[in-house]
Design a protein that fits this description.
14 helices; 9% strand; three-stranded antiparallel β-sheet; mainly alpha
Length: 353
Amino acid sequence: MGPQLLFRQGGYWWDGTSWYRPEQVWDAASEHYDRRPAKAAITITADGLLDDNAHPTGGRILKVANLDLDAPLPDQWNDHLALWASQRPDDALPLPRCVVRVSAPELAADQLIGVPEMAEIGGIAASTLRAYISRGESDVPPPQATVNGRNLWARPVAQDWAEQRRRSPESAAATLSSSDDTGLPVGAAELRQRLARRFFGVLWERPDWRKRWAMRHRNEAAVQEVSDELAWSVAADTNSIINPYDLAATIRHAILDEFASGQELDKATDGKDSPFYGIATPVAKTLDWLIGHHPQAAHHVIGEIIGDAERRLDIPRDVSAASIRTALGLDSRLPRQVRLDFLDRALPPKSGH
């Protein structure tokens, strides 16, 4: 299932023409790992290893059941190769086409690096890397060689691993960490500071509220009243968190893209227009949130969506309306009658009315 035909040296792979380093750096746009060729790689074939020092009599034929993939290579591996070559039928693939392994400058013994160098490239302590390896964490690539129990990697493999760590969602999120002690992203930290100032103003800067901190005023009803006031101050100002008309524009483009995809599917199948087009659940839920929190902005954008679909995509308004009704019917969290009453006012008149 893919171009990899052969793996060697801890994940180096061959596609029938070229050798590539182990796949580590994920390309989200193309949804596959970035292919990185091994520089100056040479394919070693069976004929290149069968020299005067290879003796078939020194080899041994094993049954599959007795083959231990984790066992170290035998000292006289070429003897086994020579025995294999002598047992092949006349119509077998020529030895110059029988690929055995890869040779590359980056895989030379004097170019391989150990745990300390690998950890330094990855920007972590050597002890941390050893812990990752022992626990199977952080997608540490398999070593290219193991000598006397010491793991060794090619430097380019270590650099690819470090690059993938930098490209991870966690690493990207860390760039937005605020400088305070909350650990929140900068946007959330700014929102926290804004809400803290607002709450302080409500709780302390208003004399009529400040007295509630006195012991005689501290009771369940007073605390409930304070809680209600703070909750109202946030709920009444959600547009300071996200502009509803910015969100509405995003929803409009998302739904129009859903409609265009539905049209393409119709053309690719029976060629008949659907009575409605599906809207992805995340998009429908976002529209539902806008309706519940900013109904005027939602009313405005629904009209824009249906008008754009009619003008740009030649989709009848009844089809667009049915699509929105169906999507919200499946994914809305609003009370059913509230949703129906809102759509009855927000959706335009049917075609021909």
